[in-house]
Write a structure and sequence with these properties.
The complex is a heterodimer of chains A (about 210) and B (about 475).
Chain A: H1 2-21, H2 25-46, H3 52-79, H4 92-109, H5 117-120, H6 124-141, H7 145-163, H8 172-200
Chain B: H1 2-18, H2 28-45, E1 51-52, E2 56-57, H3 60-85, H4 93-111, H5 115-133, H6 139-168, H7 181-187, H8 193-211, H9 219-226, H10 229-256, H11 260-282, H12 288-309, H13 314-342, H14 353-356, H15 358-371, H16 378-392, H17 396-421, H18 438-456, H19 460-474
Antiparallel strand pairs in B: 1-2
Helix pairs in contact in B: 1-2, 1-4, 2-3, 2-4, 3-4, 3-10, 3-13, 3-18, 3-19, 4-5, 5-6, 5-10, 6-8, 6-9, 8-10, 9-12, 10-12, 10-13, 11-12, 11-17, 12-13, 12-17, 13-15, 13-16, 13-18, 13-19, 15-17, 15-18, 16-17, 16-18
The chains are: A mainly alpha (about 210), B mainly alpha (about 475).
């Protein structure tokens, strides 16, 4: 089980770097969708037996992160007839290098975090923290509204990975609440991005500068 | 009882979405608010109604925030009816439905005794208020909503990571991880110190973003400036109080865990820094609604500083949540009226509000005097209690800086407010038909009466509630 889990987490980390390095928004949406769907599988691998709540959580996570949210984002990308390039603040290659560096540093230092013994054997904690950092890099270095939302999704994915360690502490109701909040959040955000696009004829958040001191 | 208080407003929100009449729909707001207030008082005064299962428990700090939220919402609900009468040109379906759902999720925050559930509720307050900020559908309101959503969501995502860290801190000690408030308090002394500290920092940033502490306050002036006045009032008095309560839970766990010194240093820094930043941005502020947003940043800073001083200042801090909530209601609602009457919120054009809107202008001025801590109003008593606590705790430097920043704010805010209310109306300002009406003035008068009352004397039941809340926080379980 643990080898399979670690293999999945490595794929998640590689997808992080793909998301940083891809120049088309549509491809990044798909990469984040695959990442989300993979994360949905993890709850089934972390513990020995597969319970009904774990199964429900897995199905809901795959459905939302892998299908529903990407579908909403692809729709709002289609509706906005914008240049579909990501146009980052830092070039794509430097941002991959930055992401890879962050991942490497976290992997190297994760042993020193004083984790509980059962968690030390797998990669959940380092994978979670480096995914959170990659989410931040995406958020900060991109200007298109949709690209920033993708950064937020990667950030959420990183937090989701950490949640895998805490199955006992997070009951099903709360887990469903977390997913519902994420879904409604993305839904509201994509409505707003559509309005940004209509009002400013662009999704470039650099246009949003009328409110400042 | 918890379920009723949480679900009733949400169901009424659903009903509001189904009502076809734009004229009748807003009346659902006062209807729900009155029922909610009555039920809240019932739940607060009867201890046997104070819990529904293990996750929904109304403890003394929760009672206090529920009271603030419910009372403020009641005043705002009547005001909304008056406000929406002037906005018949557009549908208020989403506005009314979102406000009602918002009341439901705020109640959930006050009841939640599972920190995961509480996080879900706080995030839901962000989502349900975003459409309210976007009510005016202008380019500027899109920008404000976008910043509010993005900054708020990222901040609150960090709070989730912090919540997970908090649960995880039980594992190295060999305990079962749990996010139930009572279990966390019970296990607090054994929690892993390093994970607990990391959790505290993340939660301070996360819920601090929601409260609008500097330097995470950037969304606040935009959102409060562009949203209708009544939305500003529920955000500045309701959402921030809820986020403060969420933070109070973590604070409590850390204090019980014996981390008081670490926590207090960080809180004092954040609190005083927020007060300083707010003071600086208020000087020369030409937009009177943005000015109110900075005032909110300042008062969140005061709350944090009060928690940082701890012990002797806790009573003042809890009282300040109440007085700040009520005074923010007065300020935002009267500012909303002035904004309507001038169709501008720049002090270049808005002058002589006392002549055009005698009542709202006077209330705006009184609200300013109250919020800056002038006697005989409520915030004077609470700020004085915090200051007294600082001296009692021997923190003279903190007390000195606290006073200095209050003075800076008084001068900066005073300049803007006096420009708005005094003088004569500039000739280039067009006459608008808007004048004070009973629905848009009476709720502000009621809130102002509360602010004045709290300054003169604290009613016995409220005093008891405050002492219970302080005792609860000092309880080493």
């Amino acid at each position: 089980m643990i080898e399979l889990l670690n293999a999945l987490l490595v794929i998640v980390l590689v997808l992080n770097l793909f998301a940083l390095g891809n120049s088309r928004i549509l491809s990044v949406i798909r990469i984040v969708a695959v990442q989300g769907a993979l994360l949905g599988v993890i709850p089934l691998l972390v513990h020995e037996r597969i319970t009904t709540p774990a199964l429900i959580a897995a199905v809901a996570a795959i459905g939302l992160k892998g299908i529903a949210i990407p579908a909403i984002m692809i729709r709002s990308l289609r509706a906005a007839e914008i240049k579909r390039e990501v146009e980052p603040l830092v070039g794509l290659l430097p941002s991959i290098i930055l992401g890879a560096l962050a991942t490497a540093v976290v992997l190297l230092f994760s042993r020193k975090l004083g984790a509980a013994s059962e968690a030390a054997s797998n990669m959940i904690i380092p994978a979670s923290i480096s995914t959170v950092l990659v989410g931040f890099i995406l958020l900060i270095t991109r200007f298109k509204a949709l690209s920033q939302v993708l950064g937020y999704l990667v950030l959420e994915n990183g937090i989701f990975i950490f949640g895998m360690l805490l199955i006992e502490a997070i009951p099903l109701v709360v887990e469903m609440g977390l997913l519902l909040d994420l879904f409604v959040g993305i839904f509201v955000i994509s409505i707003i991005t559509n309005h940004i696009n209509q009002a400013f004829s662009s999704m470039d958040t650099r246009e949003l500068v009328s409110l400042k001191e | 009882m918890g379920f009723v208080l949480i679900l009733m407003p949400i169901l009424m929100g659903g009903l509001a979405a189904a009502v076809p009449s734009n004229r009748l729909r807003p009346w659902l707001l006062p209807l729900t608010a009155m029922a909610h207030s009555a039920l809240s008082i019932l739940a607060i005064s009867n201890p046997e109604l104070g819990s529904s299962g293990q996750w929904l428990v109304l403890d003394p700090p929760g009672k206090l925030i529920l009271l603030v939220v419910s009372a403020l919402f009641l005043a705002c609900s009547f005001y909304s009816v008056g406000y929406l009468k002037h906005r018949m040109e557009r549908s208020n379906r989403i506005f009314v439905a979102c406000l009602l759902v918002f009341l439901g999720v705020m109640s959930l925050v006050t009841w939640a005794h599972h920190l995961g559930l509480m996080w879900v509720a706080i995030e839901a307050t962000t989502l349900s208020t975003a459409p309210l900020i976007y009510f005016n559908r202008s380019k500027r309101s899109i920008e404000a909503t976008w910043k509010y959503l993005l900054v708020g969501s990222v901040g609150i995502a960090l709070a989730l990571l912090g919540t997970f860290f908090l649960a995880y801190s039980a594992l190295p000690a060999g305990l079962t991880p749990s996010l139930t408030y009572s279990e966390l308090l019970q296990n607090a002394p054994q929690l892993s110190k390093s994970w607990l500290r990391a959790a505290f920092v993340l939660l301070l940033i996360g819920y601090g973003t929601k409260m609008g502490l500097a330097p995470m306050h950037t969304w606040k002036p935009d959102a409060y400036g562009e949203a209708p006045g009544v939305v500003g009032a529920v955000l500045a008095g309701g959402v921030t109080s809820c986020a403060f309560l969420a933070f109070l839970r973590i604070y409590h766990v850390c204090i019980v865990a014996g981390e008081a010194a670490f926590v207090s240093r960080l809180l004092l820094f954040m609190g005083l820094f927020s007060m300083a930043v707010a003071g600086l941005f208020m000087i020369g502020q030409r937009d009177f609604k943005r000015m109110l947003a900075y005032s909110s940043v300042e008062h969140m800073g005061i709350l944090m500083a009060g928690l940082g001083i701890g012990g002797p200042a806790l009573f003042g801090t809890m009282l300040h949540v109440v007085t700040n909530g009520a005074t923010k209601g007065v300020l935002f609602l009267s500012a909303g009226n002035i904004h309507r009457a001038y169709e501008s919120k720049s002090t270049e054009l808005v002058r002589g509000a006392m002549r055009r809107l005698p009542l709202s202008g006077a209330l705006f001025l009184a609200g300013f005097l109250a919020i800056t801590g002038s006697p005989p109003f409520g915030p004077f008593v609470s700020e004085f209690a915090i200051l007294n606590g600082a001296f009692d705790a021997g923190r003279y430097l903190v007390a000195g800086l606290f006073l200095l920043f209050l003075l800076v704010v008084f001068v900066g805010m005073g300049k803007t407010v006096l420009k708005v209310v005094q003088g004569r109306v500039p000739s280039e300002v067009q006459d608008t038909p808007y004048r004070d009406g009973i629905l848009t003035a009476a709720p502000i008068l009621a809130l102002m009466a509360v602010v004045l009352l709290l300054g003169l004397y604290i009613p016995a039941p409220l005093g008891r509630l405050l002492r219970e809340a302080v005792a609860f926080l000092e309880l080493p379980k």
